[in-house]
């Protein structure tokens, strides 16, 4: 009796497993009878793991299709049934449109800064103390968050947030005074080997991005443009001299609290160039510096 009960239980388990397997097999077939399955594949170059869908056709068709998030690969057997070769790559995403959002580390900018004094690259007499070293007056920034919408494979819109620094390497030995409005400075008797004025902003660009189809070995051609706003986080002046060594002072130095402008980017794959221009003045509540603006241009990494 004991062995009969075990036999009945074992048969019941086998029938249950068989039914579940049949159900699973049926669930991965399309309406036209073609079998499908979803597996995890790892990129041997980057180590990145992605979920892909494999479509296995009938015996006579001889074509296996692998659908990834951004490409579709089709493989066909050779006559000897032992090899496969890539015969088609489709770059269309299975979903034509969808929202995009989350944490990112992209659009890393590194470029040169140019000051514009009422439409001229030559500083006026009121601003001659702002003469700077062109090769060491730079812009650096990157994005950390983004949210938007991908309308199709070639166009998307998103708002991103990140940080942006403007480093002005001054030629003159001047000290900017803290907590003064309008902006004031004094000539220093100390000979500075480094005198740098820095503005740190929270940047908020709204990007309209156009992308070409994917080119093998090259990537996509990309063109992005849009408005950019920024909120001042802090201002800093750093000195370096033989007399006092390294010094650092923090103040807003009358930098514009909210700046606004426009930007443009062009690149191939993950690399490109960028340019941005701010419409309002570099300093506010400082009549002598009215019309002093800045722009930046350089290299960008990670579209």
Task: Note the main attributes of this structure.
about 300 residues; mainly beta; 2 domains; eight-stranded antiparallel β-barrel; five-stranded antiparallel β-sheet; 1 helix; elongated; disordered N terminus
Reconstruct the topology from this structure:
Blueprint: H1 2-27, E1 35-42, E2 49-56, E3 63-67, E4 72-77, E5 84-90, E6 98-117, E7 138-152, E8 155-169, E9 174-176, E10 185-187, E11 194-211, E12 221-241, E13 245-250, E14 258-268, E15 271-278, E16 292-301
Antiparallel strand pairs: 1-2, 2-3, 3-4, 4-5, 6-7, 6-16, 7-8, 8-11, 9-10, 11-12, 12-13, 12-14, 14-15, 15-16
Concise structural overview:
With 303 residues, the chain is mostly beta strands. The protein is built from 1 helix and 16 strands. The termini are far apart.
C-alpha Rg (nearest Å): 30 Å
From the N-terminal CA to the C-terminal CA, the straight-line distance is 72 Å
Q: Biggest β-sheet, characterized?
A: 8 strands, antiparallel, barrel
| Order of secondary-structure elements | HEEEEEEEEEEEEEEEE
Strand order of the largest sheet: 6-7-8-11-12-14-15-16
Determine the structural class based on helices, strands and strand pairing: mainly beta
Helix content: under 10%
Structural domains: how many: 2
Total helix count? Answer: 1
Net shape: elongated
Number of strands: 16
Strand fraction equals over 45%
Low-confidence stretches: 1-8, 17-32, 59-63, 79-92
Mean pLDDT: 81
């Amino acid at each position: 009796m004991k062995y009969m009960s075990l036999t009945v239980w074992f048969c019941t388990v086998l029938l249950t497993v068989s039914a579940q397997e049949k159900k699973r097999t049926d669930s991965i077939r399309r309406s036209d009878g073609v079998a499908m399955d979803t597996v995890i594949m790892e990129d041997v170059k980057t180590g990145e793991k992605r979920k892909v869908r494999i479509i296995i056709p009938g015996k006579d068709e001889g074509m296996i299709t692998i659908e990834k998030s951004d490409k579709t690969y089709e493989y066909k057997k050779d006559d000897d049934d032992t090899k496969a070769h890539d015969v088609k790559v489709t770059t269309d995403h299975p979903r034509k449109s969808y929202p995009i959002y989350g944490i990112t580390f992209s659009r890393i900018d590194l470029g040169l800064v140019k000051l514009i004094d009422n439409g001229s690259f030559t500083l006026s007499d009121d601003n001659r103390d702002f003469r700077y070293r062109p090769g060491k007056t730079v812009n650096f920034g990157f994005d950390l968050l983004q949210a938007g919408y991908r309308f199709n494979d070639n166009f998307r819109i998103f708002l991103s947030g990140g940080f942006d620094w403007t480093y002005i390497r001054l030629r003159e030995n001047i000290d900017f005074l803290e907590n003064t409005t309008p902006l004031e400075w004094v000539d220093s008797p100390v000979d500075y080997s480094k005198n740098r004025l820095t503005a740190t902003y929270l940047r908020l660009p709204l990007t309209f991005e156009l992308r070409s189809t994917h080119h093998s070995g090259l990537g996509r051609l990309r063109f992005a443009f849009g408005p950019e706003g920024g909120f001042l986080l802090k201002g800093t002046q750093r000195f370096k001299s033989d007399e006092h060594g390294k010094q650092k002072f923090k103040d807003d130095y009358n930098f514009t609290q909210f700046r606004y402008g426009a930007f443009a980017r062009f690149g191939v794959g993950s690399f490109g160039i960028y340019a941005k221009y701010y419409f309002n003045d570099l300093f506010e509540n400082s009549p002598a510096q009215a019309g002093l603006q800045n722009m930046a241009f350089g290299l960008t990494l990670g579209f």
